[in-house]
Design a protein that fits this description.
This protein is α/β, with parallel strands linked by helices. The chain has three domains: 287 residues, Spore Coat Polysaccharide Biosynthesis Protein SpsA, Chain A; 72 residues, no CATH class; 105 residues, Sandwich (Jelly Rolls). It is built from twelve helices and 31 strands. The strands form seven sheets. Strands 21-22-23-30-25-28 form a six-stranded antiparallel β-sheet, with no helix packed on it. A five-stranded mixed beta barrel has the order 7-10-8-9-13. Helix 3 crosses helix 6, helix 3 crosses helix 7 and helix 6 packs across helix 7. The protein is globular and about 75 Å long.
Length: 492
Amino acid sequence: MPAAALPVQPVIMAGGSGTRLWPLSRAGYPKQFLVLHGNTSLLQQAAQRLAALGGAAADDGAASSPLAVAAPIVVGNEEHRFLVLDQLREARCEPSALILEPLGRNTAPALTLAALQAVQDGGDPVLVVTPADHSVTDPDAFTAALARAARAAAGGAVVILGIAPDRPDTGFGYVQAGAAGSDGVHAVQRFVEKPDLATATAYLAEGGYYWNGGIFVLRASAWLQALERFRPDIARQTQLAFDARSTDAAFVRPAREAFARVPSESVDYAVMERCPGSGITVGMVPLQAGWSDLGAWDAVWQVAPKDGDGNAATGDVLFHDSRDTLVHATSRLVGVIGLQDVVVVETADAVLVSDRARSQQVKVLVGALDRQQRAEHTAHRKVHRPWGWYDSIDAGDRFQVKRIMVKPGASLSLQMHHHRAEHWIVVRGTAEVTCGERRLLLTENQSTYIPLGETHRLANPGKVPLEIIEVQSGSYLGEDDIVRFEDSYGRG
């Protein structure tokens, strides 16, 4: 008789900010949504790797339980909810639930919300927990390691994936592991904080130390019981916030006031580092799959394809007499001459030039942008919305020009502005325009005028994307001059 399938619940942590990859990563469009290699975003790649678990065979050749892999639970934040949903649908990885944290409380409360969601129907699946913003160049090896970890966790053990280090690195916590058992799982002896360079070098020379990449595999009940044992304050307050949640289709919203009282703590500090020696079995499966957390531009260069001089390029780039340099161009030709070990990142509204070895220090620039409340900290010139996107292509005194794309079947809110009028010119597709009591259809090269203070809406009734040019004029052109009367996306 074939073995019963082991229920597996993927959990994707998608709340990160990725500020060290500025100017490509912004607060409103962080690292997990970027396409840094290949044709899909890091979030989409994470979801597809987890979905591949369903086809994973036992790697020891023995009879073993097949894995019944559910649709992922994603934990993110309110601001990015439509980005998450759109990207996962595009990748054909529709989530079973999208838990929207009302504010950041680190990874321990986030995982607790996912575990509570997973046990609602009385089940106790194995949670496979992974960040949304990592890169893997050998997905088959990654799948095999995760499958081994899932089967080891079925009996109640806590299992992590340990990254086999290829250099002494001070940016990661480390795991010290003993010899492997017959199932290929190593016993974890201790977790180690991020070391200095001398200590990291000694770990590499000694062997038996692995990077902690934040990938955890364990039963939902094992997490909830361990959290109750080590951090009952987090367990109880998160439970209160989850019990008072609201739901809207795939969106799950914990109660804001209750969640604000949850202590902020990481999975490692709250539980993992306390497990060795506590009676809780902690295992580690080594991972050799070309893993990177892409924590800075130097890490992006490390995993990128390179030419014979060690240069890596994305976009329209010309190199001359340059070596070991990364250039990422998004909107124009970038040429570099005589550079070595440099990072150049070009976007429509910002350019970064950095010594590659100092690319971690980008966070200093991001902090300065935040303190100065500059728009380049939060958003790109091209801003994504649930209905499509807009690109602010020009602006001056009392005017602004935007290029707007509306997805087929989508519409903007019914709204009005106190301080600006708008001219709309259709350049592609069909626009359904509501302007006061009038409703009209516009096609390519047709235009209309929206007077200041008039109630209006733009919709795409067609089957192809609608693109228009919008010319705004008035005394104030900020995005906060919008009064919404109706909105399909629940925005106020």
